[in-house]
Amino acid sequence: MSSQPYILILYYSRQGATRAMAERLAAGVESMRGIEARLRTVPPVSPTCEAVDPEIPAEGAIYADLDDLRHCAGLALGSPTRFGNMAAPLKYFIDTTSELWLGGALVDRPATAFTSTSSLHGGQETTLISMLLPLLHHGMVYAGLPYSEVELMETQAGGTPYGSSHLAGKRSDRPLDDHERRLAFAQGKRLARLALALERCGEDT
To answer: What is the C-alpha to C-alpha distance for residues 91 and 79, in angstroms, rounded to an integer?
Structure first.
């Protein structure tokens, strides 16, 4: 197993739009030397208590466990929007992290969030802000997208200072456009740079 620090890119995706964003963030992370991206997802939740999901997904990233989160150098949290909030499967996983919170495992580590919606004004910003709240409770250092990323002023679809976003379209089949791709890449790169800097600060204290 690699001894390099890693950014955990933890996401939930039903139609593939949020997964595509996660992959662009991962490319941004891995454009920085000395750190790697670890893509993980979460299983769906069901109102039927007998429903059991396979231990390994049929495709895409494998399911996250608490150790993925415990040992990460930084976290990118991604979800489609559900009524202006993160999707229930991701919230369910976050709600299981009390032992990490009790031990302060994630204090001072950088974090960010990303989302996708079917409509242009489908709650992207409220979703990102709601995803920020548990990260602050964990003592993480939130990193959005600064306006030095010129695409924030030019985008006609996704992109916010709270984190990257994507307009997936009514059928969730609209691909990431160039602005959305660049912003997701920049977000991953920034998170990796901050994680490396904060790690060095920790070594100096």
So the answer is: 9
Query: From CA 17, how far away is CA 172, in angstroms rounded?
Result: 7
Is 108:141 a contact under the CB 8 Å cutoff? yes
Q: Which long-range contacts (CB under 8 A, 24 or more apart) does 168-175 make?
A: 168/15, 168/17, 168/80, 168/116, 168/117, 168/118, 169/118, 170/118, 170/119, 172/14, 172/15, 172/16, 172/17, 172/116, 172/118, 173/15, 174/17, 175/20
Q: Tokens in use for 113?
A: 């969030």
Q: 2, 69 in Cβ contact below 8 A?
A: no
CATH (residue range 6-203): 3.40.50.360
> Comparing C-alpha atoms, which of 117, 118, 123, 127 is closest to residue 85?
127
Pairing of strands 110-117, 74-82: parallel
Q: The whole model's pTM is what? A: 0.93
Q: Decide: helix, strand or coil at residue 196.
A: helix
* Residue located via tokens 């040992």: 71
From 164, 188, 191, 190, select the one nearest 177 (Cα to Cα). 164
Of 48 and 75, the one with more pLDDT: 75
Q: Which residues neighbour 203 within 8 Å (Cβ) at sequence distance 6 or greater?
A: none
The DSSP secondary-structure symbol of 48 reads S
Q: Could you give the percent of the chain with pLDDT greater than 90?
A: 81
